[in-house]
Amino acid sequence: MNERFDLIVVGAGPAGSSCAERAAELGLRVAVFEKAVFPRSKPCAGGLSSRTLGLLGPSVNSIIHHKLRTSEISIGRRVTVTWTGRDTSVATTSRKELDQYLAERAIRAGARVEFGAAVDSVTDLGDRVEIVVGSRTLSAPHLVAADGVRGSIRGMVGMPTLRLSAAAYARVFPDRSSDLEPFLDRVMIDGDACRGGYGWIFPKRDHLNIGVCGTAPLGPDYIRDVDRFIEKRGLSSWRMEGHFARPTPAEVKQTGLAKGRILVVGDAAGLADPITGEGISYSIASGRLAAEAASEAEGGGWEASTVYRRRAAREIVPVLNQTRRLGRFVRALGPGPMSLGLRIPGAAAKLESWMPRLGYASEGGVLSIDTKGPRR
Ligand SMILES: Cc1cc2nc3c(=O)[nH]c(=O)nc-3n(C[C@H](O)[C@H](O)[C@H](O)COP(=O)(O)OP(=O)(O)OC[C@H]3O[C@@H](n4cnc5c(N)ncnc54)[C@H](O)[C@@H]3O)c2cc1C
């Protein structure tokens, strides 16, 4: 039997579930197919930017481990830039909890979400898209590919492959929970932890998530960088679980956002911050845009791909291009000249105004620069 929907979504990560929730709210009969069985863990640092928190609203508080107003960014050996926001700049959670929460939101809105249902093939037939899930064939006027950075749908429909960089981390547990205390009020970012990238320390309920994100493709250097970073911060004696190393999108190309009746969202479309690797907010935003485009196509005969491509180009791609340019500039400068540059009068004020605009911090924060080096 060929079951028909208004919209089919492949993948129930942040992009797919957010797309399905919005589509159901707009009255579409939407089905999500997810190959994993939830709750499942997923390699990710679980950092929710202020932009992600804004998109999800207060109900996300139920899965938050820590809310952090301060980001401490060390550059070179001596310079530390500290941003303290009026509101939370970054919150932490686990992907097991986040993805379950987002899938439940979609189900509550009226979407059908099937777990343990891998999509084996996707065919754009011109007037509809047909998929095969096990022994079933299903169809819809549009399909949203939310199948992540290693998803196979791009390949199935003849879209170009993504250019990839990578990130890696370990989970580091203290013997005594009180040892976590010095880490509970801030996100630590280290500009020297990984060549061409940075390192992070995110506090979770019972451990620290310590990782690095770079511009090179996935390789053994990432694991070495994580270990070096843990040692540099004096945490080698803590119990370590990991490593978890995965590719991340290196860039977004507008041509990669849609093809025919297939709309590509989240990591599958390359929509992640090229400096920080932050992708959850872009996944949620692009998923919702794709749902709205599919709904308009349903009602008014608009081409969903055109609408989605145009809106994403206006609302999502420009900020990613800005951060890519900023990333190139920062890397070309290097830590030494960068720390000198930050002492130039007016540089701190400039950075203070950029941070919220690039989605790195909430509005109304205060930035301070000191030259004594990181706390530990
Ligand atoms: C080490 C690391 C740390 C990161 N830390 C952060 C962070 O702190 N904050 C942040 O914002 N971002 C972070 N990111 C990026 C973030 O993880 C991604 O941007 C985000 O997961 C993208 O969401 P998505 O829904 O597009 O894809 P995914 O979360 O990858 O979801 C894709 C889903 O599709 C399913 N799927 C794939 N193929 C099929 C198929 N054929 N049939 C059915 N289902 C299928 C998969 O099982 C998966 O559940 C990190 C990434 C890495 C690698």
Based on CA atoms alone, the radius of gyration comes out at 21 Å
Reading off the top of the CATH hierarchy, the class of the largest domain is best stated as Alpha Beta
Helix content: 25-40%
Total helical elements: 10
Question: Could you give the order of strands across the largest sheet?
Answer: 18-14-17-16-15-6-7-21
Q: What are the bound molecules?
A: flavin-adenine dinucleotide
Question: Could you tell me the number of beta strands?
Answer: 21
The separation of the N and C termini measures 62 Å
- Quaternary structure type: single chain
Query: Do you know the CATH architecture of the largest domain?
Result: 3-Layer(bba) Sandwich
Number of domains: 3
Instruction: List low-confidence stretches.
Output: none
Question: What would the CATH topology of the largest domain be?
Answer: FAD/NAD(P)-binding domain
Query: How would a textbook summarize the main sheet?
Result: 8 strands, mixed
CATH-wise, what's the superfamily of the largest domain?
Answer: FAD/NAD(P)-binding domain
DSSP strand (E) fraction?
25-35%
The mean pLDDT is 91
Question: What class do helices, strands and sheet pairing give?
Answer: alpha/beta
The geometry reads as: globular
